[in-house]
C-alpha cells in the first residue's frame, strides 16, 4: 500500500490570525485538495490535522496534512505521519510559499536547498533528507526594503486576492499531476506554461 500512498504537507502557521498570510498558501492549497476529495480534516496524534482520500476510484491514496505547529517546527508532525503511514521521503510533497518566484507562478522540484524557508529546513532535518518533492507557490519578493519575514506574515494584497483562487486551483492540479504523472511531466506542464 505505501507505494501508492502520498503524504501531502501544507506548510503554514496555526490559527485564524495566520490563515490569510502568504506563508500559509500551502495550507490554502490543501483546503482546495480536501474539497476535491470530499473529506474533512480531523486531528491526529502527530500534532496535525489530516484528511485521507483517493484520487479517483482505486487511485493513489493521499494523506493531506496541515501541521498544528508553527512553521519552524513543521518537521516533527510530518516525520511522525510519514513513519505512521510507512511513507518514504520520495512520496512526501511539501506545498509551500516561495518568495524567489513571482506571484501566480508554480514551480516543482525534488531536493535542493531550502532558500531560507524555516518550514523546509525543519522538514529536511526531521526526515533526514532533502530529497522530497516541493510544490513552490510563488508569492513574489517583498517590496522595497521590507523584510521577507514581515512580508510572508502579511495577507495577500487586494489585487493578488483576485487571482489567488485560480493560483490555488492550479497548485492543487500540480499536486495531483505529480502524484499521477510524475515530476518531469508535471514540471514540463507547469514550467513551460509559465505557471
Detailed description of the structure:
This protein has about 200 residues and is α/β, with parallel strands linked by helices. About 35% of the residues lie in helices and about 20% in strands. A seven-stranded mixed sheet has the order 2-3-4-1-5-7-6, sandwiched between helices. Helix 1 crosses helix 5, helix 2 runs parallel beside helix 3 and helix 5 packs antiparallel against helix 6. The longest helix has 24 residues. The chain is globular and about 45 Å long. The model has no long low-confidence stretch (mean pLDDT about 95).
Number of helices: 6
How do the strands line up in the largest sheet?
Answer: 2-3-4-1-5-7-6
* Fraction of residues in H or I helices: 25-40%
What separation lies between the terminal Cα atoms? 32 Å
**Series of secondary-structure elements, N-terminal to C-terminal:** EHEEEHEEHEHHH
Instruction: Supply the helix-strand structural class.
Output: alpha/beta
Mean pLDDT: 94
Radius of gyration over all CA atoms, rounded: 15 Å
What would the principal axes of the Cα set say about the shape? Answer: globular
Strand proportion: 15-25%
pLDDT under 50 segments (min length 5)? none
Subunit structure: Monomer.
GO molecular function: peptidyl-tRNA hydrolase activity
Family: Belongs to the PTH family.
EC number: 3.1.1.29
Amino acid at each position: 500500500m505505501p507505494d501508492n500512498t502520498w503524504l501531502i504537507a501544507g506548510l503554514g502557521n496555526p490559527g485564524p490570525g495566520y490563515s490569510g498570510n502568504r506563508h500559509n498558501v500551502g495550507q490554502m492549497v490543501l483546503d482546495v485538495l480536501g474539497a476535491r476529495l470530499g473529506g474533512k480534516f480531523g486531528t491526529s496524534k502527530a500534532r496535525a490535522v489530516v484528511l485521507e482520500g483517493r484520487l479517483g476510484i482505486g487511485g493513489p491514496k493521499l494523506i493531506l496534512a496541515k501541521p498544528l505547529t508553527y512553521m519552524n517546527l513543521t518537521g516533527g508532525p510530518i516525520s511522525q505521519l510519514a513513519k505512521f503511514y510507512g511513507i518514504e521521503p520520495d512520496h512526501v510533497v511539501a506545498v509551500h510559499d516561495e518568495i524567489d518566484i513571482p506571484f501566480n507562478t508554480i514551480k516543482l522540484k525534488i531536493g535542493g536547498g531550502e532558500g531560507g524557508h524555516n518550514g523546509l529546513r525543519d522538514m529536511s532535518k526531521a526526515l533526514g533528507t532533502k530529497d522530497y518533492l516541493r510544490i513552490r507557490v510563488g508569492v513574489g519578493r517583498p517590496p522595497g526594503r521590507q523584510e521577507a519575514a514581515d512580508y510572508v506574515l502579511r495577507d495577500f494584497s487586494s489585487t493578488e486576492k483576485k487571482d489567488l483562487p485560480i493560483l490555488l486551483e492550479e497548485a492543487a492540479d500540480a499536486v495531483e499531476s505529480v502524484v499521477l504523472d510524475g515530476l518531469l511531466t508535471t514540471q514540463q506542464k507547469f514550467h513551460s506554461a509559465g505557471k
